[in-house]
Design a protein that fits this description.
- It is elongated and about 80 Å long.
- It is an alpha/beta fold.
Length: 347
């Protein structure tokens, strides 16, 4: 037997207890029940899941779990008296995180090193207890807001980087980045933080959001959905929230960014014949300015469906609708896009 065969045989042996001759293995049903049983008498209160249970919970094959343990030390299960691997909740959380990072393109060795260095996976009981009690999305959102309040650029970038590997791009944006930015915006409106702190946080979060969006955006289509900010609007992060939702429809958006004038929209309409255009307005312009903007936007895209969303849109409803536009959030945009694609015969 060659070295590789002996090594593989030894790994198989350590996952199965040695049975005396003549003794039968338990039936599959009883074995599955015992996978999730608490084995405190042998291993303590934490390590209680056998390898097959971890496979079912994480989707990571048993062979991969053993390889990660052997090569990188992640996870690090205990052993029962009969040599079964027994995994704790902490082990399972680490496996899930490594698996998510690998799915996002990181190598297993890099992912394992990153996860092993995270404070939330420390062996300290107090940290483990806090980790179980607080939602990880909320915790990172709190950390990002605190770093912005402290004007701590390094800490803010570290927390944002950790968030990017927490879960799917869609969940990270909606559960961490978007709520953190809303809270930071509220702090600025309440004069708790400066405009400099708000801009710092916006720049870092927007840069990371763009990276996440690239992971889920389908290939660019001939006739895109255009996303842009109203002419006087600076806040671009809401556009990315809409872009994430459109990606779930397999729609690739074209994002024009802040302060997009009607002339820019007219140029895009002429060149690309977009399916629809969505404008974001978090702040309502003065009444005379609102009427002027709505009119010029309507003239720039007379035959293209357009919609305005955001906190500042409702106050401009009459002007926007008079110019041929629609006011509403993503559900209305989704309906508008589906209808516009149907009329064009676009799949």
């Amino acid at each position: 037997m060659c070295f590789r065969q002996r090594l593989a045989a030894s790994h198989r042996a350590t996952d199965r207890p040695h049975l005396p001759r003549g003794r039968k293995l338990e039936n599959r049903h009883s074995t599955n029940l015992k996978h999730a049983c608490h084995v405190g008498a042998v291993t303590g209160s934490e390590a209680r899941y056998r390898i097959q249970s971890v496979v079912e919970m994480t989707g990571v094959p048993a062979a991969t779990l053993r390889a990660w343990e052997r090569r990188y030390g992640v996870p690090s299960p205990q052993r029962s008296a009969t040599s079964y691997r027994l995994y704790s909740k902490r082990d399972i959380a680490m496996v899930q995180r490594v698996n998510e990072m690998c799915s996002n393109g990181m190598s297993p060795s890099q992912a394992a090193r990153h996860v092993a260095g995270l404070k939330e996976f420390s062996e300290t009981p107090e940290i483990e207890a806090a980790t179980e009690q607080q939602d990880p999305f909320e915790r990172l959102c709190d950390d990002i807001v605190k770093a912005a309040r402290d004007f701590d650029v390094q800490a803010l970038e570290q927390h944002v980087q950790r968030a990017m590997f927490l879960s799917s791009a869609w969940l990270v944006y909606h559960r961490v980045f978007a709520p953190a930015m809303r809270r930071i915006g509220d702090l600025w409106h309440e004069h708790v933080i400066s405009v400099g702190q708000e801009h710092m946080a916006s720049e870092i979060l927007e840069r990371s959001t763009k990276s996440l969006l690239r992971l889920v955006t389908p290939p660019r289509t001939k006739h895109p959905i255009v996303l842009a900010c109203y002419a006087d609007e600076l806040h671009t992060l809401p556009l990315y929230g809409v872009a994430f939702e459109l990606a779930r429809l397999q729609v690739s958006p074209l994002i024009l960014g802040a302060r997009t004038p009607a002339t820019a929209i007219e140029s895009v309409v002429s060149s690309l014949q977009p399916i629809a255009i969505a404008l974001s307005a978090t702040v309502t312009p003065a009444p005379s300015r609102a009427a002027e903007l709505a009119r010029t936007y309507g003239e720039a895209m007379p035959d293209t469906p357009w919609i305005v969303g955001g906190p500042g849109a409702e106050a401009m409803r009459s002007e926007i609708e008079a110019a041929g536009g629609t006011v509403g959030g993503y559900p209305k945009l989704r309906s508008l896009v589906i209808e516009a694609r149907r009329k064009r015969g676009t799949p």
